[in-house]
Amino acid sequence: MTSITITRPDDWHVHLRDGSQLKDTVRDISRYMGRAVVMPNLVPPVMDTAAALGYYGRIQQAQPQGQFEPLMVLYLTDNTRAEEIFKAKASGKVVAAKLYPAGATTNSDSGVTDVKNIYPVLAAMQEAGLLLLVHGEVTDSSIDIFDREQIFIDKILSQVVADFPELKVVLEHITTKDAVDFVNQASDKVAATITAHHLLYNRNHMLAGGIRPHFYCLPILKRNTHQEALLGAIASGSKKFFLGTDSAPHYKDKKEAACGCAGSYTAHAAIELYAEAFESVDALDKLEAFASFNGPDFYGLPRNTDSITLVKADWSVPESYPLGDTCVVPIRAGETIAWQVKSGE
Ligand SMILES: NC(=O)N[C@@H](CC(=O)O)C(=O)O
Ligand SMILES: [Zn+2]
Ligand SMILES: [Zn+2]
Question: Which Pfam family, any one of them, does this sequence belong to (predicted)?
Fold first, then answer.
């Protein structure tokens, strides 16, 4: 296949950051994504509706044409109150709240220390119809970093799902066969996003023959059998899996450092990288539902109505892109990508 036309996609998990970085992240995300679920892990985090609406306004100001719609998320803390959930829902702009276990990932220090602390909030979310998005990793330092997702699912997520059967839950950026199996056997209230980098890479790409910091993200890339399980999930065509890039820019010098930040940048070529992943398992016919149908269907939002066309033609990715005052090194920097979006779309 040399060309494929799909309904305009959305990104159900992205980091746009704030301040001087917004013009660059918004430029990339709004090239062809209709909507994006914008993660709230700013400094300070987006903890209430007023902050979410302020952030929404700044994103809107940063987009040249105004055709892109940010979908806002509240950052849950031990102190989030149930009434804030109803306020958020009533705003019409906030679609979800995010559970970051405290200390699990970038800017998660104010996250939740014990999921029991937010049980009244989860009850309110279930009642109001606000989705729960989850960074699914335990934070216990004695637990091996490669096991943190699987143990979170066993110890915490299965209990939450059992205790709130009507709550819609998205397990974000899944990285393991355990997560694929969990989501597949769960009710239709449970879904997952999968990133392009977890589909295209495994931990060998990050660690064999030299350490490559731009592949360092959380949850960390796993062994190739887990990558194969993720590819199996997208090739299955299940409606429970959809596009969430987790594109998470950090300045070049913060990644290429003795203690580098977690996060990989893919918004410069998101759908193009997903097309490669789907093609690798001969499943390009499943790309449209994954990128453009399953997300809005799960969130209860309308699907986009216009389309974009991808053509098979190599292009070279720059070594870096401008980001705020300096730059970000994207995934595939200095290498080629096999698909491109036809210009003008
Ligand atoms: N994925 C990452 O490695 N980093 C994300 C946070 C997150 O999504 O966990 C970030 O904000 O940089
Ligand atoms: Zn995360
Ligand atoms: Zn993320």
Answer: Amidohydro_1
